[in-house]
Design brief:
Structural class: mainly alpha
Number of domains: 1
Helix content: 55-70%
Number of strands: 2
Strand order of the largest sheet: 1-2
Oligomer: single chain
Shape: globular
Order of helices and strands: HHHHHHHHHHHHHHHEEHHHH
Number of helices: 19
Strand content: under 5%
Low-confidence stretches: 1-10, 431-440
Protein backbone atom coordinates (compact mmCIF):
# COMPACT_ATOMS: atom_id res chain seq x y z
CA UNK A 1 0.00 0.00 0.00
CA UNK A 2 2.85 2.33 0.84
CA UNK A 3 4.37 1.67 -2.58
CA UNK A 4 1.09 2.47 -4.36
CA UNK A 5 0.62 5.71 -2.46
CA UNK A 6 4.22 6.64 -3.27
CA UNK A 7 3.54 6.11 -6.98
CA UNK A 8 0.43 8.28 -6.74
CA UNK A 9 2.39 11.06 -5.12
CA UNK A 10 5.08 10.86 -7.78
CA UNK A 11 2.62 10.91 -10.70
CA UNK A 12 0.55 13.84 -9.42
CA UNK A 13 0.78 16.77 -11.82
CA UNK A 14 2.38 20.02 -10.72
CA UNK A 15 0.22 23.19 -10.84
CA UNK A 16 2.12 24.53 -13.87
CA UNK A 17 1.53 21.27 -15.72
CA UNK A 18 -2.17 21.30 -14.86
CA UNK A 19 -2.52 24.86 -16.16
CA UNK A 20 -0.77 23.99 -19.42
CA UNK A 21 -2.91 20.87 -19.92
CA UNK A 22 -6.09 22.76 -19.04
CA UNK A 23 -5.36 25.34 -21.73
CA UNK A 24 -4.72 22.53 -24.20
CA UNK A 25 -8.00 20.83 -23.30
CA UNK A 26 -9.87 24.13 -23.67
CA UNK A 27 -8.33 24.68 -27.11
CA UNK A 28 -9.36 21.22 -28.30
CA UNK A 29 -12.89 21.69 -26.94
CA UNK A 30 -13.17 25.04 -28.72
CA UNK A 31 -11.81 23.57 -31.94
CA UNK A 32 -14.41 20.81 -31.78
CA UNK A 33 -17.23 23.33 -31.37
CA UNK A 34 -15.94 25.58 -34.16
CA UNK A 35 -15.73 22.57 -36.49
CA UNK A 36 -19.51 22.16 -36.29
CA UNK A 37 -21.47 23.45 -39.32
CA UNK A 38 -23.57 25.59 -36.97
CA UNK A 39 -20.45 27.61 -36.07
CA UNK A 40 -19.97 28.85 -39.64
CA UNK A 41 -22.12 31.55 -41.20
CA UNK A 42 -22.53 29.46 -44.39
CA UNK A 43 -23.65 26.38 -42.46
CA UNK A 44 -20.65 24.34 -43.64
CA UNK A 45 -17.83 23.03 -41.47
CA UNK A 46 -14.61 25.00 -41.92
CA UNK A 47 -12.50 21.90 -41.20
CA UNK A 48 -10.52 20.94 -38.13
CA UNK A 49 -7.24 22.80 -38.77
CA UNK A 50 -8.83 26.25 -39.32
CA UNK A 51 -11.02 25.61 -36.26
CA UNK A 52 -7.95 24.59 -34.24
CA UNK A 53 -6.07 27.69 -35.38
CA UNK A 54 -8.97 29.96 -34.40
CA UNK A 55 -9.55 28.21 -31.06
CA UNK A 56 -5.86 28.49 -30.20
CA UNK A 57 -5.80 32.16 -31.16
CA UNK A 58 -8.91 32.87 -29.05
CA UNK A 59 -7.88 30.83 -26.00
CA UNK A 60 -4.37 32.27 -26.08
CA UNK A 61 -5.90 35.77 -26.59
CA UNK A 62 -3.79 36.39 -29.67
CA UNK A 63 -6.10 37.50 -32.48
CA UNK A 64 -4.37 36.02 -35.53
CA UNK A 65 -7.07 34.71 -37.87
CA UNK A 66 -7.37 32.84 -41.15
CA UNK A 67 -10.80 34.37 -41.85
CA UNK A 68 -12.54 37.59 -40.96
CA UNK A 69 -14.28 36.77 -37.67
CA UNK A 70 -17.43 38.75 -38.45
CA UNK A 71 -17.84 37.12 -41.87
CA UNK A 72 -16.82 33.49 -41.31
CA UNK A 73 -18.53 32.69 -38.02
CA UNK A 74 -22.20 32.56 -37.13
CA UNK A 75 -23.56 34.00 -33.90
CA UNK A 76 -22.94 30.60 -32.28
CA UNK A 77 -19.35 30.52 -33.56
CA UNK A 78 -18.72 34.07 -32.37
CA UNK A 79 -20.15 33.11 -28.97
CA UNK A 80 -17.72 30.18 -28.75
CA UNK A 81 -14.83 32.50 -29.63
CA UNK A 82 -15.99 35.02 -27.03
CA UNK A 83 -16.14 32.31 -24.36
CA UNK A 84 -12.64 31.11 -25.24
CA UNK A 85 -11.33 34.67 -25.07
CA UNK A 86 -12.87 35.28 -21.65
CA UNK A 87 -11.65 32.03 -20.13
CA UNK A 88 -8.26 32.27 -21.81
CA UNK A 89 -7.79 35.92 -20.82
CA UNK A 90 -8.79 35.64 -17.18
CA UNK A 91 -7.38 32.12 -16.85
CA UNK A 92 -9.24 28.85 -16.59
CA UNK A 93 -8.82 28.93 -12.79
CA UNK A 94 -10.84 32.14 -12.66
CA UNK A 95 -13.70 30.42 -14.48
CA UNK A 96 -13.41 27.34 -12.27
CA UNK A 97 -13.23 29.40 -9.08
CA UNK A 98 -16.37 31.29 -10.13
CA UNK A 99 -18.26 28.00 -10.11
CA UNK A 100 -16.77 27.11 -6.72
CA UNK A 101 -17.74 30.48 -5.26
CA UNK A 102 -21.29 30.29 -6.62
CA UNK A 103 -21.72 26.80 -5.15
CA UNK A 104 -20.36 27.94 -1.81
CA UNK A 105 -17.69 25.24 -1.76
CA UNK A 106 -14.53 25.45 0.33
CA UNK A 107 -11.34 26.20 -1.59
CA UNK A 108 -8.70 23.57 -0.82
CA UNK A 109 -4.93 23.88 -0.68
CA UNK A 110 -4.39 22.50 -4.19
CA UNK A 111 -6.96 24.91 -5.63
CA UNK A 112 -5.18 27.78 -3.89
CA UNK A 113 -1.89 26.67 -5.43
CA UNK A 114 -3.47 26.63 -8.88
CA UNK A 115 -4.97 30.08 -8.33
CA UNK A 116 -1.57 31.46 -7.34
CA UNK A 117 0.09 29.93 -10.41
CA UNK A 118 -2.64 31.18 -12.75
CA UNK A 119 -2.31 34.73 -11.37
CA UNK A 120 1.52 34.59 -11.46
CA UNK A 121 1.73 34.98 -7.68
CA UNK A 122 4.58 33.47 -5.70
CA UNK A 123 2.59 33.04 -2.48
CA UNK A 124 -0.87 31.82 -1.48
CA UNK A 125 -1.62 34.32 1.30
CA UNK A 126 -4.90 36.08 0.48
CA UNK A 127 -5.13 34.37 -2.90
CA UNK A 128 -8.85 33.56 -2.53
CA UNK A 129 -9.71 37.19 -1.77
CA UNK A 130 -7.59 38.28 -4.72
CA UNK A 131 -9.34 35.79 -7.01
CA UNK A 132 -12.77 37.09 -5.96
CA UNK A 133 -11.60 40.64 -6.54
CA UNK A 134 -10.26 39.66 -9.98
CA UNK A 135 -13.63 38.24 -11.01
CA UNK A 136 -15.68 41.15 -9.69
CA UNK A 137 -13.45 43.91 -11.03
CA UNK A 138 -12.92 42.24 -14.42
CA UNK A 139 -16.64 41.82 -15.04
CA UNK A 140 -17.30 45.39 -13.84
CA UNK A 141 -14.68 46.95 -16.13
CA UNK A 142 -15.80 44.89 -19.12
CA UNK A 143 -19.42 45.75 -18.41
CA UNK A 144 -18.64 49.47 -18.27
CA UNK A 145 -16.72 49.29 -21.54
CA UNK A 146 -19.50 47.31 -23.19
CA UNK A 147 -22.08 49.89 -22.09
CA UNK A 148 -20.12 52.83 -23.52
CA UNK A 149 -19.55 51.03 -26.81
CA UNK A 150 -23.24 50.04 -26.94
CA UNK A 151 -24.29 53.68 -26.58
CA UNK A 152 -21.80 54.67 -29.27
CA UNK A 153 -22.99 52.06 -31.79
CA UNK A 154 -26.72 52.32 -30.99
CA UNK A 155 -27.70 55.28 -33.22
CA UNK A 156 -26.15 53.78 -36.36
CA UNK A 157 -26.57 50.01 -36.01
CA UNK A 158 -29.61 49.32 -33.84
CA UNK A 159 -29.77 47.88 -30.33
CA UNK A 160 -29.10 44.22 -31.20
CA UNK A 161 -25.98 44.90 -33.25
CA UNK A 162 -24.81 47.57 -30.81
CA UNK A 163 -25.28 45.30 -27.79
CA UNK A 164 -23.40 42.37 -29.34
CA UNK A 165 -20.62 44.58 -30.69
CA UNK A 166 -20.30 46.32 -27.32
CA UNK A 167 -19.97 43.07 -25.35
CA UNK A 168 -17.71 41.30 -27.85
CA UNK A 169 -15.23 44.12 -28.33
CA UNK A 170 -15.14 45.07 -24.63
CA UNK A 171 -14.21 41.49 -23.71
CA UNK A 172 -11.76 41.22 -26.62
CA UNK A 173 -10.03 44.47 -25.65
CA UNK A 174 -9.85 43.82 -21.89
CA UNK A 175 -8.47 40.32 -22.50
CA UNK A 176 -5.98 41.75 -25.04
CA UNK A 177 -7.34 39.39 -27.70
CA UNK A 178 -7.75 41.70 -30.70
CA UNK A 179 -10.68 39.88 -32.33
CA UNK A 180 -13.23 42.15 -33.99
CA UNK A 181 -16.51 41.38 -35.75
CA UNK A 182 -16.90 44.63 -37.66
CA UNK A 183 -16.70 42.57 -40.86
CA UNK A 184 -20.44 41.92 -40.45
CA UNK A 185 -20.99 45.43 -41.82
CA UNK A 186 -17.71 46.77 -43.19
CA UNK A 187 -15.35 45.18 -45.76
CA UNK A 188 -13.29 42.30 -44.39
CA UNK A 189 -10.19 43.54 -42.57
CA UNK A 190 -11.33 47.16 -42.66
CA UNK A 191 -13.59 47.22 -39.59
CA UNK A 192 -11.24 48.72 -37.02
CA UNK A 193 -9.63 50.91 -39.66
CA UNK A 194 -13.09 52.40 -40.27
CA UNK A 195 -13.14 53.58 -36.63
CA UNK A 196 -9.56 54.91 -36.50
CA UNK A 197 -10.92 58.45 -36.37
CA UNK A 198 -13.53 57.69 -33.70
CA UNK A 199 -12.29 59.03 -30.36
CA UNK A 200 -14.90 57.12 -28.33
CA UNK A 201 -14.21 53.69 -29.86
CA UNK A 202 -10.43 54.11 -29.88
CA UNK A 203 -10.42 55.64 -26.39
CA UNK A 204 -12.54 52.91 -24.81
CA UNK A 205 -10.55 50.12 -26.46
CA UNK A 206 -7.24 51.67 -25.38
CA UNK A 207 -8.46 52.06 -21.80
CA UNK A 208 -9.62 48.44 -21.65
CA UNK A 209 -6.36 47.19 -23.19
CA UNK A 210 -4.25 49.14 -20.71
CA UNK A 211 -6.27 48.05 -17.67
CA UNK A 212 -6.17 44.42 -18.76
CA UNK A 213 -2.44 44.65 -19.44
CA UNK A 214 -1.50 46.12 -16.05
CA UNK A 215 -2.20 42.91 -14.18
CA UNK A 216 -4.74 42.12 -11.50
CA UNK A 217 -2.32 42.58 -8.60
CA UNK A 218 -1.33 46.06 -9.81
CA UNK A 219 -4.92 47.14 -10.44
CA UNK A 220 -5.91 46.03 -6.94
CA UNK A 221 -3.13 48.04 -5.32
CA UNK A 222 -4.02 51.11 -7.38
CA UNK A 223 -7.68 50.90 -6.36
CA UNK A 224 -7.10 50.11 -2.68
CA UNK A 225 -3.98 52.14 -1.80
CA UNK A 226 -4.42 55.14 -4.16
CA UNK A 227 -0.97 56.54 -3.41
CA UNK A 228 2.17 56.04 -5.46
CA UNK A 229 4.32 56.06 -2.31
CA UNK A 230 2.26 53.26 -0.76
CA UNK A 231 2.46 51.02 -3.80
CA UNK A 232 4.84 48.06 -3.82
CA UNK A 233 8.05 48.34 -5.81
CA UNK A 234 6.58 46.00 -8.43
CA UNK A 235 3.44 48.11 -8.91
CA UNK A 236 5.43 51.33 -9.16
CA UNK A 237 7.75 49.79 -11.73
CA UNK A 238 4.80 48.49 -13.81
CA UNK A 239 3.08 51.89 -13.81
CA UNK A 240 6.26 53.78 -14.74
CA UNK A 241 7.13 51.31 -17.48
CA UNK A 242 3.60 51.30 -18.88
CA UNK A 243 3.44 55.10 -19.11
CA UNK A 244 6.92 55.31 -20.61
CA UNK A 245 6.20 52.67 -23.24
CA UNK A 246 2.87 54.19 -24.27
CA UNK A 247 4.32 57.69 -24.71
CA UNK A 248 7.63 56.65 -26.29
CA UNK A 249 5.90 54.13 -28.56
CA UNK A 250 3.39 56.71 -29.75
CA UNK A 251 6.15 59.25 -30.36
CA UNK A 252 8.17 56.72 -32.38
CA UNK A 253 5.17 55.65 -34.48
CA UNK A 254 4.19 59.25 -35.23
CA UNK A 255 7.76 60.20 -36.08
CA UNK A 256 8.29 57.24 -38.43
CA UNK A 257 4.82 57.10 -40.03
CA UNK A 258 3.71 60.75 -40.06
CA UNK A 259 4.07 61.18 -43.83
CA UNK A 260 3.62 57.54 -44.84
CA UNK A 261 0.70 57.52 -47.34
CA UNK A 262 -0.12 53.89 -46.44
CA UNK A 263 -0.67 54.59 -42.72
CA UNK A 264 -0.81 58.03 -41.03
CA UNK A 265 -0.05 60.19 -44.06
CA UNK A 266 -3.62 61.01 -45.24
CA UNK A 267 -4.93 61.72 -41.72
CA UNK A 268 -5.45 65.05 -39.97
CA UNK A 269 -2.79 65.88 -37.31
CA UNK A 270 -5.07 65.05 -34.36
CA UNK A 271 -5.98 61.72 -35.97
CA UNK A 272 -2.31 60.91 -36.55
CA UNK A 273 -1.59 61.45 -32.87
CA UNK A 274 -4.63 59.38 -31.85
CA UNK A 275 -3.55 56.48 -34.06
CA UNK A 276 0.05 56.80 -32.95
CA UNK A 277 -1.11 56.20 -29.39
CA UNK A 278 -3.47 53.44 -30.50
CA UNK A 279 -0.68 51.62 -32.36
CA UNK A 280 1.57 51.98 -29.31
CA UNK A 281 -1.11 50.50 -27.04
CA UNK A 282 -2.44 47.77 -29.33
CA UNK A 283 1.00 46.33 -30.09
CA UNK A 284 1.43 45.62 -26.37
CA UNK A 285 -0.49 42.65 -27.05
CA UNK A 286 -4.03 43.62 -27.98
CA UNK A 287 -3.90 43.21 -31.75
CA UNK A 288 -6.58 45.62 -33.02
CA UNK A 289 -5.32 47.01 -36.33
CA UNK A 290 -6.47 50.63 -36.70
CA UNK A 291 -3.94 51.21 -39.48
CA UNK A 292 -2.71 48.86 -42.21
CA UNK A 293 0.12 46.88 -40.61
CA UNK A 294 1.46 45.81 -44.00
CA UNK A 295 1.77 49.48 -44.96
CA UNK A 296 4.09 50.33 -42.07
CA UNK A 297 7.65 51.30 -42.92
CA UNK A 298 10.33 48.80 -41.95
CA UNK A 299 11.32 51.12 -39.11
CA UNK A 300 7.70 51.30 -37.97
CA UNK A 301 7.46 47.51 -38.03
CA UNK A 302 10.67 47.25 -36.01
CA UNK A 303 9.30 49.56 -33.32
CA UNK A 304 6.03 47.62 -33.28
CA UNK A 305 7.88 44.30 -32.88
CA UNK A 306 9.85 45.66 -29.92
CA UNK A 307 6.60 46.74 -28.25
CA UNK A 308 5.09 43.32 -29.02
CA UNK A 309 7.96 41.48 -27.38
CA UNK A 310 7.76 43.64 -24.27
CA UNK A 311 4.02 43.15 -23.79
CA UNK A 312 2.20 43.88 -20.54
CA UNK A 313 2.62 42.98 -16.88
CA UNK A 314 2.85 39.59 -15.21
CA UNK A 315 -0.47 38.15 -14.08
CA UNK A 316 -2.33 40.19 -16.70
CA UNK A 317 -4.21 39.31 -19.87
CA UNK A 318 -1.24 40.47 -21.96
CA UNK A 319 1.63 38.43 -23.35
CA UNK A 320 5.25 39.18 -24.22
CA UNK A 321 8.29 38.90 -21.98
CA UNK A 322 6.56 41.40 -19.66
CA UNK A 323 7.44 44.99 -18.76
CA UNK A 324 9.21 44.28 -15.48
CA UNK A 325 11.40 41.68 -17.19
CA UNK A 326 12.62 44.32 -19.63
CA UNK A 327 12.99 46.86 -16.82
CA UNK A 328 15.16 44.46 -14.81
CA UNK A 329 17.37 43.82 -17.85
CA UNK A 330 17.72 47.55 -18.53
CA UNK A 331 18.57 48.22 -14.90
CA UNK A 332 21.12 45.39 -14.96
CA UNK A 333 22.83 46.81 -18.06
CA UNK A 334 22.84 50.27 -16.50
CA UNK A 335 24.32 48.92 -13.26
CA UNK A 336 27.05 46.93 -15.03
CA UNK A 337 27.89 49.88 -17.28
CA UNK A 338 28.61 51.87 -14.09
CA UNK A 339 30.69 49.06 -12.64
CA UNK A 340 28.15 47.95 -10.03
CA UNK A 341 27.50 44.30 -9.25
CA UNK A 342 23.89 44.62 -8.05
CA UNK A 343 20.64 45.97 -9.48
CA UNK A 344 18.63 48.55 -7.54
CA UNK A 345 15.21 50.11 -8.14
CA UNK A 346 13.25 52.46 -5.87
CA UNK A 347 15.89 51.96 -3.13
CA UNK A 348 15.51 48.18 -3.21
CA UNK A 349 17.93 45.53 -4.48
CA UNK A 350 16.74 43.06 -7.11
CA UNK A 351 17.84 39.47 -6.29
CA UNK A 352 20.42 38.02 -8.66
CA UNK A 353 18.11 35.07 -9.37
CA UNK A 354 15.42 37.42 -10.72
CA UNK A 355 17.96 39.00 -13.06
CA UNK A 356 18.94 35.56 -14.36
CA UNK A 357 15.27 34.63 -14.83
CA UNK A 358 14.74 37.81 -16.86
CA UNK A 359 17.75 37.02 -19.04
CA UNK A 360 16.65 33.43 -19.58
CA UNK A 361 13.10 34.32 -20.58
CA UNK A 362 14.20 37.13 -22.90
CA UNK A 363 16.82 34.97 -24.63
CA UNK A 364 14.29 32.17 -25.14
CA UNK A 365 11.70 34.53 -26.62
CA UNK A 366 14.17 36.26 -28.93
CA UNK A 367 15.64 32.94 -30.09
CA UNK A 368 12.17 31.54 -30.83
CA UNK A 369 11.18 34.73 -32.65
CA UNK A 370 14.26 34.57 -34.90
CA UNK A 371 13.77 30.86 -35.60
CA UNK A 372 10.10 31.44 -36.38
CA UNK A 373 10.89 34.30 -38.72
CA UNK A 374 13.33 32.15 -40.68
CA UNK A 375 10.83 29.28 -40.93
CA UNK A 376 8.01 31.55 -42.10
CA UNK A 377 10.24 33.22 -44.70
CA UNK A 378 11.38 29.86 -46.02
CA UNK A 379 7.98 28.22 -45.94
CA UNK A 380 5.58 30.92 -47.09
CA UNK A 381 7.70 33.37 -49.06
CA UNK A 382 7.24 36.29 -46.67
CA UNK A 383 9.95 38.93 -46.46
CA UNK A 384 12.20 38.69 -43.41
CA UNK A 385 10.50 41.68 -41.79
CA UNK A 386 6.98 40.34 -42.36
CA UNK A 387 8.02 36.85 -41.28
CA UNK A 388 9.48 38.23 -38.07
CA UNK A 389 6.35 40.34 -37.56
CA UNK A 390 4.16 37.24 -37.82
CA UNK A 391 6.38 35.15 -35.52
CA UNK A 392 6.70 37.84 -32.85
CA UNK A 393 2.97 38.56 -33.04
CA UNK A 394 2.15 34.91 -32.38
CA UNK A 395 4.78 34.37 -29.71
CA UNK A 396 3.82 37.53 -27.83
CA UNK A 397 0.07 36.77 -28.33
CA UNK A 398 -0.52 40.07 -30.14
CA UNK A 399 -2.50 39.17 -33.25
CA UNK A 400 -1.24 41.79 -35.71
CA UNK A 401 -0.13 40.63 -39.15
CA UNK A 402 1.80 42.49 -41.83
CA UNK A 403 1.95 39.74 -44.43
CA UNK A 404 -1.46 38.14 -44.03
CA UNK A 405 -1.84 35.07 -41.82
CA UNK A 406 -4.08 33.41 -44.42
CA UNK A 407 -1.09 33.31 -46.77
CA UNK A 408 0.84 30.90 -44.55
CA UNK A 409 1.26 27.31 -45.69
CA UNK A 410 0.23 24.30 -43.58
CA UNK A 411 3.50 23.92 -41.68
CA UNK A 412 3.78 27.60 -40.92
CA UNK A 413 0.21 27.61 -39.60
CA UNK A 414 1.09 24.73 -37.30
CA UNK A 415 4.16 26.67 -36.16
CA UNK A 416 2.00 29.70 -35.38
CA UNK A 417 -0.39 27.49 -33.36
CA UNK A 418 2.53 26.22 -31.28
CA UNK A 419 3.89 29.74 -30.82
CA UNK A 420 0.53 31.11 -29.67
CA UNK A 421 0.25 28.30 -27.12
CA UNK A 422 3.79 28.86 -25.86
CA UNK A 423 3.21 32.59 -25.68
CA UNK A 424 0.10 32.30 -23.52
CA UNK A 425 1.10 29.50 -21.17
CA UNK A 426 4.57 30.96 -20.86
CA UNK A 427 7.90 29.74 -22.15
CA UNK A 428 9.43 29.89 -18.70
CA UNK A 429 6.43 28.24 -17.05
CA UNK A 430 6.50 25.39 -19.54
CA UNK A 431 10.23 24.97 -19.08
CA UNK A 432 9.91 24.81 -15.33
CA UNK A 433 6.79 22.69 -15.34
CA UNK A 434 7.74 20.06 -17.90
CA UNK A 435 11.52 20.11 -18.09
CA UNK A 436 12.70 21.09 -14.63
CA UNK A 437 9.96 19.87 -12.34
CA UNK A 438 11.93 16.86 -11.09
CA UNK A 439 15.40 18.31 -11.44
CA UNK A 440 17.77 17.06 -8.79
CA UNK A 441 19.98 19.57 -7.03
CA UNK A 442 23.58 19.73 -8.24
CA UNK A 443 25.79 17.73 -5.94
CA UNK A 444 29.08 19.18 -7.18
CA UNK A 445 30.53 22.06 -9.15
CA UNK A 446 33.48 22.24 -11.50
CA UNK A 447 36.36 24.61 -10.79
CA UNK A 448 35.84 28.17 -12.03
CA UNK A 449 37.55 29.52 -15.14
CA UNK A 450 38.07 33.00 -16.51
CA UNK A 451 36.66 34.00 -19.89
CA UNK A 452 37.05 37.16 -21.96
CA UNK A 453 33.68 38.90 -22.37
CA UNK A 454 33.15 41.71 -24.87
Amino acid sequence: MAGISGVRRRTRLAPTQMIALAFLALILLGAGLLTLPAASARGESCGFLPALFTATSATCVTGLVLFDTGVQWSLFGQGVILGLIEIGGLGFMSAASLVVFLLGRRVGLRQRMLMAQALSMDEMAGIVRLQKWVLQSSLTVQGAGALILFLRFLPEFGWRQAAWWGVFHAVSAFCNAGFDIFGQVFPAGMGMITFNGDIVVCGVLMALILIGGLGFFVCREVVTLRSFRKFSVYTRLVLVMSAALVVSGAAAVCLLEWNNPATLGPMAPWQKILNGFFQSVTTRTAGFAAIDQGGLTDAGKAVSMVLMLIGGASGSTAGGVKMVTVAVLALFVWARARGRDHVCVFRRTVPEGKVMDAMTLTCLMVALAVAGAVCICAGSGFSLTDGAYEAVSALATVGLSAGGTAGLNLWCRLLIIVYMYFGRVGVLTLSLGFLMGNRAESRFRYAQTNLLIG
